[in-house]
Amino acid sequence: MSTVDIKTWAMIFLVISQTLFIETSSSKLDPFAVKKKRMSDKVRKMFYHAYDNYMMYAFPHDELKPLTKTYTNSLSELGNLKLEHLPQEYNGTALTLIESLSSLVIMGNETEFEKSVLWLSENLTFDVDARINLFECNIRVLGGLVSAHILATDSTNRFTKKGSYRNQLLVLAEELGNRFLPAFDTPTGLPYAWVNLKYGVMEKETTETSTSGCGSLILEMGALSHLTGDPKFESAALRALRKLWSMRSSLNLLGTTLDVQTGEWIEYSSGIGAGVDSFYEYLLKAHLLFGREEFWRMFQSAYLAVQKYFRHGPWYHEADMRTGRATYWQLTSLQAFWPGLQVLAGDIAAANSSHREFFYVWQQFGVLPERYLLDHQMLHPTEKYYPLRPELAESTFYLYQATKDPWYLEVGESIVDSLNLHTRVEAGFASIRDVTTMELEDHQHSFFLAETCKYLYLLFDDSFLVNTNYVFTTEGHPLPILSSWHERLPEAYIPSNWTSLKGEEQQKRASAMSMKICPALNCGNGRQPVESICHVPDARAHHRCLADEDCGVDSISCRRRSCSISGYCGLWLSV
Ligand SMILES: *[C@@H]1O[C@H](CO)[C@@H](O)[C@H](O)[C@H]1NC(C)=O
Ligand SMILES: *[C@@H]1O[C@H](CO)[C@@H](O)[C@H](O)[C@H]1NC(C)=O
Ligand SMILES: *[C@@H]1O[C@H](CO)[C@@H](O)[C@H](O)[C@H]1NC(C)=O
Ligand SMILES: *[C@@H]1O[C@H](CO)[C@@H](O)[C@H](O)[C@H]1NC(C)=O
Ligand SMILES: CC(=O)N[C@H]1CO[C@H](CO)[C@@H](O)[C@@H]1O
């Protein structure tokens, strides 16, 4: 077994040295350049097929029904499984257009971006009698507007009509943020899941919400506070996040659903999928965006608990937050984002092994089914759908960024091919109702444009990322990493700490994308493979360490890490 260890170390070292030392801009040496160009063109065509048909048949309503060539005002339906309290007089908020703005910029269509921003500037209003899901509206609408505002005002000068953009999207975003605030008016500070945009929280509103629902607001609301100079949005989101974190169990686990009035858990079982996923994602990404050590500490504890209690080889099951005992053995399509997050955390080997399993399931069915019962090795009887979800494409993009292993380009190509084969129809892309029959459903979700197409495009053409480091929100909207937004720069961002590198590339490479959040520095002799601080060892059976030798050297302190009694590497037990 110890040769496996050595291989793993060698590989980690190789990946790191590739990322750090090899000149990546010389595309003429890249044998994959032609393929990448062909594939990015293909993805661009997919995006426009979805976008143009939305504009033709659905705009300014929310989403396209591609089979019947009509629309749905779905912002009020998102997360509303029983379709209760639907508005009578709501005609949509151009949801898919808002979600497309950053994709238009990434694909280089500044004319269409300008036109859309100006349309929204003049025509969008949130003074509507619609009860919306706070989480969905935050990630899709607030995130879309805030990101587009930043892209409209950065140094790139994307607008031809000078002076036509006067922060209208930011004004709209602030108005929306204000309409969110009544939801936070609870004894716990945990927000209601539902709020009416015009009238606030409705009478007898349900007090039940999810961990994601109150733990994934900080990126958008924090960015809004930084842009407007008004701290109230960030404060509300932060208060909710801190309260949520205080409700963790002694194992550092959280449940899936809770009561916002009492602050008590309703569902004690949780995993990394639906209802919890973006909570973990936002802890790490908030640290990247705002440079607060508090987020990092939360993330590291939460991440280690996930790896300890949910992970079984490359799979993740659910467990009871109180006991850590496994509850449900299910693979869900949403979990496929996890390897992407692991890349940001520097845990490449674990990301790679999980990602492969998700891709094998994708290959087995042609797409990823919503839920698969690992213990019975069968599809969940009522969740056989695939609604054009982005998570596997997203993870593939992150893994390719980190490793440059061309295998991930093949994965991307295979995803593109199956989407075109199974979901492309005359007027857009349709969701799949049943992956065993490939029967279609009349819905093109806005996240197909905001995320699925965007991540596939970025996999083959990442020129958007060359000059700025971005954090992508859980809906795929880019927010730039600005040192002026950082409370305190993580040490990994301070070039003088980079003992092994010289030159101006350093600053640029201090990026979430190049693993600097869990940096692997060169400790002294230059040949010793150094572990990333966040890595949970992957080499042994059960993915735990047996001896201190398995744990390598901590990249920040350059101290040897040691293996704890329960089989985890760290500094906490070092002698
Ligand atoms: C929605 O559209 C209908 C039909 O065009 C119109 O009568 C109604 O006033 C609109 N509602 C709102 C809130 O704009
Ligand atoms: C931008 O999008 C519009 C609408 O789809 C399209 O007509 C135009 O050709 C696109 N421009 C570029 C440069 O891709
Ligand atoms: C606002 O919407 C109206 C009706 O669709 C349209 O005529 C007008 O041009 C829009 N404003 C902008 C700036 O596009
Ligand atoms: C990913 O896993 C495959 C199969 O185990 C292995 O061949 C490859 O080297 C791994 N890549 C990385 C970057 O860990
Ligand atoms: C780990 C490490 O070397 N941290 C150092 C980074 O740089 C600052 C200031 O130069 C030092 O104070 C840290 O100790």
What is the average of the pLDDT values? 84
Helix residue percentage: 40-55%
Number of helices: 17
Note the beta-strand portion: 5-15%
Distance between the termini: 26 Å
- Rg is 23 Å
Structural class based on helices, strands and sheet pairing = mainly alpha
**Major beta sheet, strand line-up:** 5-6-7
The distinct ligands, each listed once, are:
2-acetamido-2-deoxy-beta-D-glucopyranose
CATH fold topology of the largest domain: Glycosyltransferase
Oligomer: single chain
Largest sheet: 3 strands, antiparallel
Shape: globular
Q: In CATH terms, what is the architecture of the largest domain?
A: Alpha/alpha barrel
Provide the low-confidence segments as ranges. 1-27, 497-543
**CATH class wording of the largest domain:** Mainly Alpha
Task: Indicate how many domains the architecture comprises.
Answer: 2
DSSP strand count:
22
A few lines on this structure:
The chain is mainly alpha-helical. Helix content is 42%, strand content 10%.
Description:
Its cofactor is Ca(2+). One of its GO terms (molecular function) is mannosyl-oligosaccharide 1,2-alpha-mannosidase activity. One of its GO terms (cellular component) is membrane. The protein is mainly alpha-helical and 575 residues long. It is 42% helix and 10% strand. It has 2 domains: 3-26 and 42-480, Glycosyltransferase (Alpha/alpha barrel); 489-575, no CATH class. The strands form 10 sheets. A 3-stranded antiparallel β-sheet has the order 5-6-7. Strands 12-13-14 form a 3-stranded antiparallel β-sheet, with no helix packed on it. Helix 5 packs across helix 8, helix 10 runs antiparallel to helix 11 (293-309) and helix 12 runs antiparallel to helix 13. 50% of the residues are buried.
